[in-house]
Amino acid sequence: MNKIYIMLLLVMMAWGFNVAAIKVLVTNIDPILLTSARIFAAGIGVLITLQFMKILRLPTKKEVLLIFYISFFNVVIHHGLMAMGLTLTTGVNAGVIVGLGPLLTMILSTLLLSRHITMFKAFGFFLGFAGVMMTTLLGSGGLGSVSIGDLYIFLSIAAQAFSFILISKLNPDLDPRLLTGYMMVGGSVVIFIASLSLESRPEQLIQLWDPKLGMIFLFSAFICTAFGHMIYNFAIKQVGPAETAIFINFNSFFALLGSVLFLGEFIKWYHIAGLVLIVSGVIIGTGALEYIISRKKRTKVA
How many angstroms separate the CA atoms of 290 and 149, rounded? Predict the structure, then answer.
């Protein structure tokens, strides 16, 4: 189990830095078109890897419907809105909003998986929501001028959280890593068709031959998206959606760090305050604090 946790931490580092990577890419290429190319490349990378692992097989008719259903939320909505949102908000703001992922996953786990919600968890949800509101409202100058990009990022994370619940209820015969590859390829095709309907120009992808943009694209597609999602989706089946989502907390930290290191952005006091509230909400909302308190009580009794 410790190996899975270490791998999840590395995935969070990659995903956090990926916010800065996508921010650079979408400033040069149409975000929807770029997303379709990035996800398609990632999906092909996953399927090739699974072929070497002797896991690759064709899905059944029932599994095809399941793959399409999950990919709509996990790929089309999540990645599409994330790409559009990053063109309309800062990498720092996006990094902090991403930190709401664990709390959204916990809420959906409670509602859809019939998990009991305690006062501690409810308070954790409140803290996390307060952190996101502080970041977006103070960062944009008030409720009347909240960035539409911030809203896109939030909806993107909400769609991803819902997809995690769906993945946790998968047919056990369908390996989550196999699901990852197929839903990326299928989802990317849908996103590409959408980009054409929005009059995107496919020739923009020629810019990826630029050495700098090309390296960033490969890092984002294969390291962050392909292997990152393959490992994360596998972990969901091993330790559960809510428990796995705890690690998204680190995603925000690395996203903030990446925005400072690679985008030259500045972290302001409300970003730190918002992040502290979100992290506190994660610790309380996921039950970690209750576990520590109950363990201390048991130790005293013993």
Answer: 35
